[in-house]
Amino acid sequence: MESTAQPRHRFSAARREGERVTPLELFFDLVFVLALTQCTALMAHDQSWSGLAQGLLVLGVLWWAWVGYSWLTSVIDPEEGAVRLVFFVAMAAMLIVSLSVQKAFGDLALSFALGLGVFRLAHIALFMIAGADDQNLRRSVTGLAVSTAVAVGLLLLASLFDGVPQGALWALAIFLDMAGPYFFGAEGWKLVPGHFAERHGLILIVALGESIVALGIGASGALNLGMGTVAVLGIFFAAALWWTYFDVVALISARRLSEAPAGRVQNELARDSYSYIHLLMVAGIVLIALGLKVTIGHHDEHLHAEPAFALLGGVAIYLIGLVSFRYRHIHTLNRHRLALAFVLLLLIPVATAIPALLTVAIAVALLWAMIAYEHRGYGTSRTELRREASAAHS
């Protein structure tokens, strides 16, 4: 297929259909590997409901910060000389944020907020440059700048408090930040659908990588039969999560996004299904990583309520995210995924009374049973769809 890409050295809004995710974007995403690892570490250090809530609040802030750059790279070339320098500055700022995560509600709350402020400022500055010749885009970026300033300001204010007031300010910051693009309209944004969908698929792989990293950290350099069994099950756990998204769902959704009318309709579909709903899937994976990290170190013990919720509830949240993702694209419910999510939630009390290894085995078995059932139901349509997707990328 002939590329319609514009010249690569540019600072104004330009669509890049036909271009793939660049090496710099992949390099940029590496800082989120550490950030996600730190989220899991924060919850593992404080395995209480409060600790889980703090980890998810931090994840919400980090996710929305990353989402902004996924939209940015549809309108500006990240590998243009001056732009890549700004990306490096943003990476340095996100590294400071990542190093502050475990004490983001304590001694490093101010460092977290300041680092995030620099990261978000770099994003807004590049977006302003990209929209210099596009009045609609510039208007949208101005609205985004306001919601960003409010959110960062609330996090700075939250650093002066602790406990419930601090958590409430964080929650308010996330709500206002995420609600901003919903209320000031989607008409002005520019989007390259293929690139945008691919970028979100790759960040899911980064999150899945965190679940594997968590197994290594949880093992702490030791290995016995039980730990080895959990490790093997953990790989099949991550593989099942990968399969449920990338085998068919990602392909159909990317095609639906590309076929949507450019402008408001396409932008709202991208915003709802990728910017919002993907957070559910990433949150589910991070919670699962916590559950696996606890399990591999205590495989012969039962899980307490919080890590049991993280493990089984994390899978349920991930599946609900997939169901919501499908519904937003084709307006149909995947009932067996929704049913499995409900079953896993019901199994949480059971997980507090049986060995953690058995809990992981049950979750993995249920996921792969669902995959096998779906695979039979797809028939030849799955093969045809994957062949079409392969041809489109060649």
What's the helix and strand layout?
Layout: H1 23-45, H2 49-72, H3 81-100, H4 109-130, H5 135-158, H6 163-183, H7 193-219, H8 225-246, H9 249-259, H10 264-297, H11 305-330, H12 335-346, H13 348-351, H14 356-378, H15 380-393
Report on this structure.
The protein folds into 2 domains: 1-190, no CATH class; 191-394, Up-down Bundle (I/LWEQ domain), CATH 1.20.1410. 78% of the residues lie in helices and 0% in strands. It has 15 helices and no strands. The longest helix is centred in the C-terminal third of the chain and has 34 residues, at 264-297. The radius of gyration is 21 Å and the shape is globular. The protein starts with 22 loop residues before the first helix and ends with a helix. The model is unreliable at 1-10 (pLDDT under 50).
Which terms would index this structure?
0% strand; disordered N terminus; 2 domains; 394 residues; 78% helix; mainly alpha; 15 helices; I/LWEQ domain
Q: Measured on Cα atoms, how large is the radius of gyration?
A: 21 Å
The total of beta strands comes to 0
Q: Name the CATH class of the largest domain.
A: Mainly Alpha
CATH architecture of the largest domain: Up-down Bundle
Provide a brief overview of the structure.
This protein is mainly α. Helices cover 78% and strands 0% of the residues.
